[in-house]
Amino acid sequence: MSDSRRPAAPDPHDFLALDAELSDTERDVRDAVRGFASRELLPNVAEWFDAGTLPDPRGLARAFGDLGLLGMHLEGYGCGGSSAVAYGLACRELEAVDSGLRSFVSVQGSLAMAAIHKFGAEEQKGAWLPRMAAGEVVGCFGLTEPDSGSDPGSMRTRARRDGTDWVLDGTKMWITNGSVADVAVVWAATGEGIRGFVVPTDTPGFSANVIHRKLSLRASITSELVLEGVRLPADAVLPASKGLGAPLSCLNEARYGIVWGAVGAARACYEAALEYAATREQFGQPIGGFQLTQRKLADMVVDVNHAGMTALRIGRLKDRGDCHHNHVSFGKFANVAAAQRVARTARGVHGANGITLEYPVMRHMVNLETVATYEGTEEIHALSIGQAVTGISAFR
Fold it and tell me: What sign has the CA pseudo-torsion 288, 293, 298, 300?
């Protein structure tokens, strides 16, 4: 017997009805973060971007903490213990406003807090994680160096033993939240291999310099960390952090957030273009009525929905414990490229208006240039996927 019921027309804002695949709890997280972002962040983000800073990062940290976003996917120690999909949805809604805001939450929870949670001693976890989850303490993650980006194993930062103490010397670069952080998780080469250290930022010899004149990720604080004879007690080392795999596992957590965040940036650009195409008139009709514009909108909605499906599938794998780091590489590689295509196309739909901060598309477009580079460049993730499908490493 045939079904005579006529399916509903697709929702332009959720074309493949992906939100129907979410649980009630996941929808609650989505709605809470989207509501907060719409009220508190979206009205201000263009001004922050124009100024090239976040005017009140500590207030923002406390607000994120009150919302339960900091380390929300971690268990215990004041953290929410949410599902991977719920955390991904939070990243999506934050990056729909601006990549810098998702980066703030990601660096705090998926890098600094995750490192302490995974590799720290109980005393370290108890001392830092509850305050970081509440937004009372801001953290940063020091891995990248001026001459060591895609090849972190070549880092020059060194930690040497001096009696029972450790002494750290080196420089870290492109560190989100570095100059406002209370604690830095710093990775250094030792005689025992690469180790992680919990470094209070008021330790003598530690300094952070803000990086200015950025053309991307401007609503975010980015810093250089300088360590000159930073003396730490023996218990500053993260005891379970041994080898390069430790910081890379934290990066994988942050990359997972990007898989979802890119969907938010793409969605924001597509929705801006859809609205603009419906209201901007040329030659006596809305530009959305022209075939060339409709083709652009079709390309964008396909990219947004493909990226959304990819994020949701990887999130479900992660919640089942079946998510390999190559899955995350697949997601970052595919979704960031999709978001970049959408942002560029949306910028074109807006014409000259697209280059102004009155519309979000150019801001997202330049932010995505940074998103494409950090937590592993497009090339690195292509090689990760290539190794997964061939069984042959082409990294060296």
Answer: negative
How many angstroms separate the CA atoms of 27 and 335, rounded? 22
Domains, the chain: 18-133 (1.10.540.10), 139-236 (2.40.110.10), 245-390 (1.20.140.10)
Per-residue pLDDT reduced to its tens digit, 229-268: 999 999 999 999 999 899 989 999 999 999 999 999 999 9
What is the spatial distance between Cα 332 and Cα 258, in angstroms, rounded to a whole number?
6
Catalytic residues, by residue number, are 375
The length of the chain in residues reads 396
Residue in 159, 163, 169 with CA at minimum distance from that of residue 227: 169
The rounded distance, in Å, linking the Cα atoms of 110 and 359 is 30
Whose CA is closest to 86, among 133, 22, 39, 34?
A: 22
DSSP strand pairing (183-190 vs 139-142) = parallel
- Degrees to nearest 5, angle at CA 142 with 139 and 147: 155
What pLDDT, on a 0 to 100 scale, did the predictor assign at position 148? 79
Return the residue matching tokens 């196309």: 345
Distances (CA, A) of 352 to 292, 298, 356, 357, 358: 17, 21, 8, 11, 11
Please tell me the distance from the alpha carbon of residue 73 to that of residue 66, in angstroms, as a whole number: 15
Place of tokens 């004879």: 229
Contacts of 236 (CB under 8 A, 6+ apart): 166, 197, 198, 199
Q: How far apart are CA 303 and CA 342, in angstroms?
A: 7
Tell me the CA distances in angstroms from 238 to 88, 204, 210, 247, one per residue in order. Answer: 27, 20, 27, 11
Pairing of strands 222-232, 165-176: antiparallel
Amino acid at 321: G
360 has a pLDDT exceeding 80: yes
Q: Can you state the percent helix, strand and coil of the chain, rounding each to 5?
A: 55, 15, 30
Cβ neighbours of residue 203 closer than 8 Å, sequence gap 6 or more: 230, 231, 232
Burial class (CB in 10 A: 0-12, 13-18, 19+), 49: buried
> In the numeric block, which tokens belong to residue 153?
């194993």
What's the predicted TM-score (pTM) here? Answer: 0.95
Contacts of 221 (CB under 8 A, 6+ apart): 53, 54, 57, 176, 177, 178, 179, 180, 210
